[in-house]
Each structure stands twice: as structure tokens, then as C-alpha cells.
């Protein structure tokens, strides 16, 4: 880890409002995996965002916009996020979203295949569209028209935009985690 965790007592006046907002949002929206250390420091991508609050605040705002009351089915979201995390080999992202995907009902077989960078054979139609859309954006550049039309037909125009933005956000999250070498938390980080 390249950036030290920031305990609440060490926060600057600029960091404090962002910390309070992120902590409240994390406790409400990001459950089931380790996000906050025993001393109150934020883990995962939230620590780097807190270090550079000028950049972290708008990223956090986008995260909330795409996480609170999403239009897409939860399994569809998790498939797209995991395809992104697997593409970037982002350890914390995969750790957190495998847990989230399990809680949303995705099987261990599907998850293991996605994390290995492959497309599972037993995806639902919607999950398959999410997989193909994320994979195309991450590996092929411009989203093919056929995949875009399939997404619009399955989800709607607004929801397809949400899916595209979600992949973009998790590219940024994965790059943040990898750039600052954010590890998967161990039992000491609880």
C-alpha cells in the first residue's frame, strides 16, 4: 500500500466532510466486505480518494450516483463490475465484488469463470449482455452497434447509459486501487 490509512483523528479540515460523507455512504451502501478499519480509517479506493479530496470528492459523487437506487438489476451490475475488475487484475475490487455478487445470488461457478477472465456459459440473457458490453468496451474500443442495441432492447436507453458509465467508473476504481497498490484487507484491518 502506497498511501497510509488516515485515522479520523488525523483528518484535515478539507478531508473531514468527505470522510464523513463517504463513511455514511459506505455504511449504508457497501456492506458485506471490509471497508473501514478498526480505527475508523477507510479502506479500498476510499483511502486514496480521501488523500486527494479534490479528485476524490467528484469520484465519490459519481460512485453514489451510480450506486444509490440503480436502474439495472443487481446481478447485471455485478457482472459488469467483475469483468472490469478481472480485466485490471484489481485485487480489492475482485475481493469486494465477489462478495457482493454472491449476496446477489450469482453462483460460485459463474464468479470463478468471470474472475478468470472468461465468459460463463450459464449467464442469463441480461447477464450475458452486461458481460459482452463490458468486455467489448474494455478490450475492443468502440462498443459494437449490435451489443448496444441488445442492451437498449433488454434494459432501455437510460439503463444502457448507466451500464456504460458503471464500466467507466470501475475502470477508474480499478486503476486507483492498482496505482496505489491497495491490498485486500486482512483480519487486522477489521
What are the key terms here?
single chain, 190 residues, mainly alpha, AhpD-like, 2 domains, 9 helices, globular
Could you please describe the fold and organization of this structure?
This protein has nine helices and no strands. The radius of gyration is 17 Å and the shape is globular. Helix content is 64%, strand content 0%. The model has no long low-confidence stretch (mean pLDDT 96). With 190 residues, it is mainly alpha-helical.
Provide the fold topology.
Elements: H1 15-29, H2 46-51, H3 53-67, H4 74-88, H5 91-103, H6 108-115, H7 125-140, H8 145-155, H9 157-179
Helix pairs in contact: 1-3, 3-9, 4-5, 4-7, 4-9, 7-8, 8-9
In short:
With 190 residues, the protein is an all-alpha fold. The protein folds into two domains: 8-68 and 179-189, no CATH class; 74-175, AhpD-like, CATH 1.20.1290.10.
H/I helix tally:
9
What's the number of domains?
Answer: 2
Strand content: under 5%
Share of residues in helices: 55-70%
Low-pLDDT segments, ≥5 res: none
List the helices and strands in order. HHHHHHHHH
Distance between the termini: 16 Å
CATH topology of the largest domain: AhpD-like
- Measured on Cα atoms, how large is the radius of gyration? 17 Å
Structural class: mainly alpha
The count of β-strands is: 0
CATH top level assignment of the largest domain: Mainly Alpha
For the record, what is the CATH homologous superfamily label of the largest domain?
AhpD-like
Largest sheet: none
- Mean pLDDT, to the nearest integer, reads 96
Amino acid at each position: 500500500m502506497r498511501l497510509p490509512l488516515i485515522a479520523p483523528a488525523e483528518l484535515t479540515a478539507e478531508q473531514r466532510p468527505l470522510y464523513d460523507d463517504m463513511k455514511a455512504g459506505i455504511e449504508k451502501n457497501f456492506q458485506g466486505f471490509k471497508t473501514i478499519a478498526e480505527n475508523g480509517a477507510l479502506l479500498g479506493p476510499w483511502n486514496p480518494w480521501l488523500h486527494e479530496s479534490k479528485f476524490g470528492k467528484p469520484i465519490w459523487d459519481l460512485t453514489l450516483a451510480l450506486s444509490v437506487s440503480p436502474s439495472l438489476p443487481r446481478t447485471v451490475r455485478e457482472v459488469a463490475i467483475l469483468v472490469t475488475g478481472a480485466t485490471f487484475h484489481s485485487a480489492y475490487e475482485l475481493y469486494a465484488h465477489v462478495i457482493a455478487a454472491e449476496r446477489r445470488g450469482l453462483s460460485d461457478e459463474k464468479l470463478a469463470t468471470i474472475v478468470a477472465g472468461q465468459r460463463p456459459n450459464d449467464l442469463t440473457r441480461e447477464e450475458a449482455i452486461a458481460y459482452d458490453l463490458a468486455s467489448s468496451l474494455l478490450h475492443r474500443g468502440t462498443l459494437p452497434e449490435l451489443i448496444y442495441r441488445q442492451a437498449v432492447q433488454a434494459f432501455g436507453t437510460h439503463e444502457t447509459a448507466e451500464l456504460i458509465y458503471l464500466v467507466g467508473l470501475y475502470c477508474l476504481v480499478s486503476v486507483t486501487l492498482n496505482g496505489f497498490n491497495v491490498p485486500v484487507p486482512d483480519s487486522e484491518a477489521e
